[in-house]
Amino acid sequence: KNQVEQSPQSLIILEGKNCTLQCNYTVSPFSNLRWYKQDTGRGPVSLTIMTFSENTKSNGRYTATLDADTKQSSLHITASQLSDSASYICVVSVMNNAGNMLTFGGGTRLMVKP
Amino acid sequence: DARVTQTPRHKVTEMGQEVTMRCQPILGHNTVFWYRQTMMQGLELLAYFRNRAPLDDSGMPKDRFSAEMPDATLATLKIQPSEPRDSAVYFCASGLGLAGSYEQYFGPGTRLTVT
User: Fold this and answer.
1) What are the CA-CA distances from residue A16 to residues A75, A80, A114 (Å)?
2) Which of A68, A98, B15, B111 is most exposed, with minimal Cβ within 10 Å?
């Protein structure tokens, strides 16, 4: 069964600190992996998309890494800000006959405190 | 600033009533997705359309849910009859090309409560 597991489920850090969120997946054949940020009461917003051949991608203070051999990805947030408080969702895409199947992780809920 | 719009933003209804949620994708996008999000299940893909044709609705309960795209500027998700377990936030997203290979832009969601 294709699965995407995220850890930790929740995390509290102090403003200015760094943190790393983890995503492990078993989906196959892999197409791409995305990280989304979802603020409370809003729709998810894409942070990064990585294909099989990419092992790192940055978007400002957000850096995603991908190890396709071990099927692991991480999202590193540098110098956290209060506005980083949100849920972070890892989504893995695999191609099927219909064109796509998206498997979602359960998300990590991050709270940044002053 | 192009964005996906959804109406209504909030809906409270009684069990057994019909619910229709609407989505206006970003102009020019040819693929539309419907998702459901609950605390217990997280985000689930219900259905998606490409060029207005349904490509995959395997995530959608067929007996009560239906999704359509009457035209390129409108997608609808209908529940009839609604049940309390349908209470969730329903998101619409749009994009270009094949679903797995490009960016999706999410709307603000419709928060549905069925009592």
Assistant:
1) 16, 5, 9
2) B15
